[in-house]
């Protein structure tokens, strides 16, 4: 079993996040290119099949068996559909919006966490949280613009929502399971199996003929994405989610660089201001949450955390 070191150098998990986010964003750029040829469920189906390759290599190199985690099976089962909805919603959206906009929507997850926490967990909305949410959504409006927002149909909004919500819950589950020494490879192996079970009916219900020359490209999507996911998951084994969350914003840099190199899309002034507002509001929320964690908990909060 994995043993988490008490004194892990902080640069190690940071490097894992930066590397994992970059590899994943390259995979997303390939998905964007292939979205004009194949449906989202087809790309995701081939993606998950190819994902077994890095997972099995991971397990082989680390000499891991495939145990039955009966004590945590509920969280493992919940985590798997989250990956399905997160990737499926994102792949669907990439067909209609550019990579930069899709990445910014992904990074707006902290804003939705605040709203969902207030609605369902009855958490108090502080002035800082309300201001951060308003600033973040103002930045999203600037990025989309009046013309871009008109292209967002209700179905596309639903797809992006299915993508953002798992991003808010997934890291917490990964951190919880990591503290209990469940190997990232084993976690994602179960996830691939469950997601393929969900994708198979969709794939056979509607799919197009696969061209031979596209097989290596589609396989590379799954391999690159799973490598990135394994690196990010491993980072949560070494450091709390709150400490690693700011480094996920490096995704914006990757998205801008890839968009310029592949499609020649350069962000305009509104896009740059909106990006700064979204990133700034997200970091403000993260810093506020980190400071609040240092405060002593009330008896009620202690009971909720047990």
Please mark out the parts with pLDDT under 50 across 5 or more consecutive residues, or reply none: 1-7, 295-306
Count of distinct structural domains: 1
Helix content: over 70%
The SSE string, one letter per element, is HHHHHHHHHHHHH
| CA-atom Rg in angstroms | 19 Å
Largest sheet data: none
Shape: globular
**What is the tally of helical segments?**
13
Distance between the termini: 25 Å
Strand-pairing-aware structural class: mainly alpha
- Count of distinct strands: 0
- Mean pLDDT comes to 77
Strand content: under 5%
Write a compact overview of the structure shown.
The chain is an all-alpha fold. Helices cover 76% and strands 0% of the residues. It has one domain.
Please give a structural write-up:
With about 300 residues, this protein is mostly helical. It has one domain. The chain has helices spanning about 10-35, 40-60, 75-95, 100-105, 110-120, 125-150, 155-180, 185-205, 215-240, 240-245, 250-265, 270-295, 300-305. Helix 3 runs antiparallel to helix 7, helix 3 (about 75-95) crosses helix 8 and helix 6 runs antiparallel to helix 12. The longest helix has 26 residues, at about 155-180. The two termini are about 25 Å apart. Residues about 1-5 and about 295-305 have low confidence and may be disordered.
């Amino acid at each position: 079993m994995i043993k988490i070191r008490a004194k892990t150098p902080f640069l190690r998990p940071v490097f894992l996040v930066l590397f994992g986010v970059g590899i994943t964003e390259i995979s997303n750029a390939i998905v964007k290119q292939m979205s004009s040829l194949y449906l989202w469920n087809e790309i995701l189906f081939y993606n998950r099949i190819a994902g077994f390759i890095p997972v099995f290599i991971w397990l082989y190199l680390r000499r891991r068996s495939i145990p039955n985690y009966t004590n945590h099976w509920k969280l493992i089962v919940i985590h798997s559909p989250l990956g399905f909805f997160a990737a499926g919603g994102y792949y669907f959206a990439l067909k209609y919006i550019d990579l930069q906009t899709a990445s910014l929507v992904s990074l707006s997850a902290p804003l939705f966490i605040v709203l969902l926490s207030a609605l369902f967990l009855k958490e108090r909305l502080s002035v800082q949280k309300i201001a951060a949410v308003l600033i973040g959504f103002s930045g999203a409006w600037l990025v989309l613009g009046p013309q871009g927002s008109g292209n967002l149909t209700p179905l596309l909004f639903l797809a992006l929502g299915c993508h953002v919500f798992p991003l808010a819950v997934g890291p917490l589950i990964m951190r919880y399971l990591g503290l209990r020494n469940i190997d990232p490879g084993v976690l994602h192996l179960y996830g691939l199996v469950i997601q393929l079970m969900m994708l198979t009916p969709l794939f056979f219900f509607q799919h197009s003929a696969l061209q031979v020359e596209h097989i290596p490209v589609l396989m590379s999507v799954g391999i690159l994405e799973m490598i990135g996911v394994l690196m990010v998951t491993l980072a949560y084994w070494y450091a709390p989610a709150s400490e690693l969350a700011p480094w996920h914003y490096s995704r914006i840099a990757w998205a801008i660089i890839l968009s310029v190199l592949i499609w020649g899309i350069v962000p305009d002034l509104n896009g740059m201001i909106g990006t700064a507002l979204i990133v700034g509001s997200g970091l403000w929320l993260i810093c506020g949450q980190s400071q609040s964690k240092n405060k002593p908990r009330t008896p009620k909060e202690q009971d909720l955390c047990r």
